[in-house]
Amino acid sequence: MKKMQQGFTLIELMIVVAIIGILAAVALPAYQTYTKKAKFSEVILATAPYKLAFEVAAQEGRITALAGVDSGGSGIPAAAGASGVVASVAVDEGVITATGSNAVDSLTYTLTPNGVTAPIQWTIGGTCIAAGVC
């Protein structure tokens, strides 16, 4: 009588473990970048009130040049301190700079306006670009 094989051989199990290891090695870095992007989105969103205030002030004529456009003046909100993953947000000479906390590697996000006349175009900059999170 011939004996029926039941179960898996050792080599079959080793192949399955190797495949799972390869999939995990590919998925883990992608997931880490995804979570960092999700955290950094809070830093990006923190610039919205400053951007809106700048555009409204420019439209109403309270700003005539980028020089002197700083946090706390011309209707621009005062510089904000730490909140969540946002370490600070400030405006200096019209450039909005948001800095993340250690949770997002202290990356920065900057918005630079092309001027004070409509339509205002914003150029994104900062260390977040090289990190791939903005």
Automatic annotation (TrEMBL):
Superkingdom, taxonomy of origin: Bacteria
For this protein, the record's SUPFAM superfamilies field holds: Pili subunits (SSF54523)
Which Pfam families does this one have? N_methyl, Pilin
The membrane-spanning stretches of this chain are 7-31
Has keyword Zinc? Answer: no
In the record, biological process GO terms are: cell adhesion; type IV pilus-dependent motility
Which keywords belong to this entry?
Fimbrium, Membrane, Methylation, Transmembrane, Transmembrane helix
Q: Which family does it belong to?
A: Belongs to the N-Me-Phe pilin family.
From the UniProt annotation, give the residues forming the signal peptide. Answer: none
Name of protein: Type IV pilin PilA
Single GO cellular component annotation? type IV pilus
Instruction: Give the originating organism.
Output: Thauera aromatica K172
